[in-house]
Amino acid sequence: MILLEGGNVFKDAEGNPLTGRINQADVPATVRWVEQATGINFPKERWLGSTGKKDSSGDLDLGVDATQHNKEELATRLGQWAASHGFKPEEYVKKSGSIVHFKTPINGRPDNGFVQTDF
After folding, report:
1. Angle between helices 27-38 and 71-84 (to 10 degrees)
2. CA nearest 90: which of 19, 21, 9, 22?
3. pLDDT (mean) for 107-116
4. Which residue, 79, 86, 75, 90, is CA-closest to 110?
5. SS3 category, 34
6. Three-class SS state of 46
7. Residue 1, pLDDT above cutoff 70
8. Of 5, 42, 53, 68, which has the fewest Cβ atoms less than 10 A away?
9. How many C-beta atoms surround the C-beta of residue 118 within 10 A?
10. In which order are the strands placed within the sheet that holds 93-96?
11. Neighbour-count burial for 63-79, b at 16+ CB within 10 Å, e otherwise
């Protein structure tokens, strides 16, 4: 397994982050929502970095089995989710290196703010 982490990739025109920290209490519900959006299960052993381990995390790091799901497939699924909700996929999904980044609504609700999920 390779774990590569990056900084915040979702920023406005002035360079301000569009995603923030997530409280530990919000992690399980948000991961369940991500599972529904992607069709991929993320048991706790695939929660990487500080995800669900600290009082808050700067992002969600979720491990994906590359033998079952590839980067392009995951990015396409997430882009389809964004488009189906009237959002511009390029504002919600970004790719860098081996990572897919997703601007994830906390608890699946945009009114709760967003956290960056790195797959």
Report:
1. 100
2. 9
3. 95
4. 86
5. helix
6. helix
7. no
8. 68
9. 21
10. 47-48, 59-62, 114-118, 99-105, 93-96
11. bbeeeebeeeebbebbb
| pLDDT category of residue 6 using cuts at 50, 70 and 90 | low
Question: Can you say how many angstroms the Cα of residue 8 is from the centroid of all Cα atoms in its chain?
Answer: 11
What CA–CA distance (Å, rounded) separates 50 from 71?
Answer: 22
Q: Which of 101, 98, 80 is nearest to 9 (CA)?
A: 101
Residue 118 in this model has a pLDDT that exceeds 90: yes
One DSSP character per residue, 76-95 reads: HHHHHHHHHTT--GGGTEEE
- Cα–Cα distance for residue pair 37/58, rounded to 1 Å: 21
- CA–CA distance, 55 with 74 (Å, rounded to integer): 28
Q: Contact, 10 vs 17, CB < 8 A?
A: yes
